[in-house]
TrEMBL record:
SMART domains: PBPb. Its main location: periplasm. It is found in: Periplasm. Coiled coil: none annotated. Residues 44-260 form the Solute-binding protein family 3/N-terminal domain. Keywords: Membrane, Signal, Transmembrane, Transmembrane helix, Transport. Belongs to the bacterial solute-binding protein SsuA/TauA family. Pfam families: NMT1. The chain crosses the membrane at residues 7-28. This is Putative aliphatic sulfonates-binding protein. InterPro entries: ABC_SsuA_sub-bd, Solute-binding_3/MltF_N, SsuA/THI5. GO terms for cellular component: membrane; periplasmic space.
Amino acid sequence: MSSAKRTALKWLVGVILVLWAGVAFYGYRQTDGATSSHSNGLTTVTVGYQKGDPFDIAKERGQLVKKMKAKGYKVVFKQFQDGNALMQAMKSGSIDYARTGDTPPVTAQAVGTKLAYVAVGSTKAKGSALLVKKNSGISSLKELKGKKVAYTKGTSSQYLLLRLLEKAGMSVNDIDWVNMDQSSASVAFAKGKIDAWVTWDPYTAQAELTQNAKALSTGVGMSNNRDYILAMKSYASAHKQVSKYLVSYLEDDMQWANTHHTQLINMLSQSLKLSKSVVRKMVERRSYSIHGMNTQVIKEQQDMADDFYKNGITTKKIKVSSAVTYFK
C-alpha cells in the first residue's frame, strides 16, 4: 500500500470514529430525557400514558405543561395501549415516566427491571370487571369453568382474573386463559369468540353500554387497580426535583377532575372519541388523586407479588418496598 493510500485510510478511520462517538453521545443524551437540552432552553421530560388516565387528563387540560415549562421543562406525552407496553418503553429509555395499573410494576420487578414507584392514585376497582354477555346464561364465576376468558398478560386484568378464580374456589387451570390486547379482546367479545373478558375503564363502560355486556364481578374487594407513576430507579434517583414537580402538578389536575365532572366528561369524550354517556359512566364511578406511596399500597402490591409467585405467574420472590421512592 502506498504512503498516500495509508494516509487516506487513516483519515477515513478517524472520521468514522469521530462520527461514532458523536452518535453514541447523542444516543445517551436522548435516553435520559430530563438531561436533553433544546434550543429553547427547556429540558425534555417524556411521560407515557393510557387513554383516560391521569396523564391524559393533564395533557388535555394543559396546566401541567404550563407549570412544568415555568420550571424549565418541556413535557412530551406518548400514548400506549396497556401497562405492559409502557414498561417496555420505560425500560428502553424512550419514556422517563410511566402511568400504569397495579400489575405491570410487579411483573416487571420480578424479571429484574430496576424500577421505582414515584406516586400512587386512588382505586379504579368499580371500573375494572370481568364481563360476560347479558344473554350468555353465565351468572356465576364457577360457570366459567372450561370457558375462554380474555385478559392481557402483565396488566391489571391478569391479577383481577386470578383473584376472582381464587374467590370462586377455582384453580388457574379451570378456564382457558386467552391473552390478547384490549382492542382485540373488545372485537373478540363483540363477535362472541370469547366467553368472558377481564378489562378496565373506559373499555368496561363502553362494553356495558354498547356491547350488551354485564359485570359478572368488579374489582371491588378483589383488586384496587390503582394508578401508579413509575420511573426507572436510576432516573428517579437522579431527578427527584422533576418528580416532585410532576406529582404536585398532577395532583392539582386530579383535584380539578373531582370537582369539574362536566368539563372533564366533555374533554375526555373528545380526546377518547367516545360518547359522553360512556365517559360519564367511567368518571362517575371513581375519584381521582395522586400522592406519595404509603404502607397500605405497598402491602397491596406485595400481596399481589406473593400471589403471583405462589401461582407460578412469576418465578422470583420480590420485595416491593425496595422499589419505592418517596417524595416529601
